[in-house]
Amino acid sequence: xxxxxxxxxxxxxxxxxxxxxxxxxxxxxxxxxxxxxxxxxxxxxxxxxxxxxxxxxxxxxxxxxxxxxxxxxxxxxxxxxxxxxxxxxxxxxxxxxxxxxxxxxxxxxxxxxxxxxxxxxxxxxxxxx
Length: 129
Hints:
The chain is of the alpha+beta class. The protein is 23% helix and 36% strand. It has one domain (5-125).
């Protein structure tokens, strides 16, 4: 039995600064069961529960895990960029958590499936990825 991977890229209207990221995390806290953050690198990396935006560990590259029901997804955010990337396992049926994370995020103007190479190449040529 093989598990299929799912992933999306959210294109935001503005570069993601601290205030915009806090708004996105607030939307996750309102909509999903749990938000966790992986902070640091390598053996010093920690996974922390985020119950409010004051608990975010700020660094240039942020990594979160969103849990909802029996699903979870990873979220990758880079400060001052306009994209957020998500990845996880594709559900056998129903909505993908990877997509839901982006659909309710304030300022997200487009959601691109990670398999849409043509559109992702366009974003890369524009310097957005």
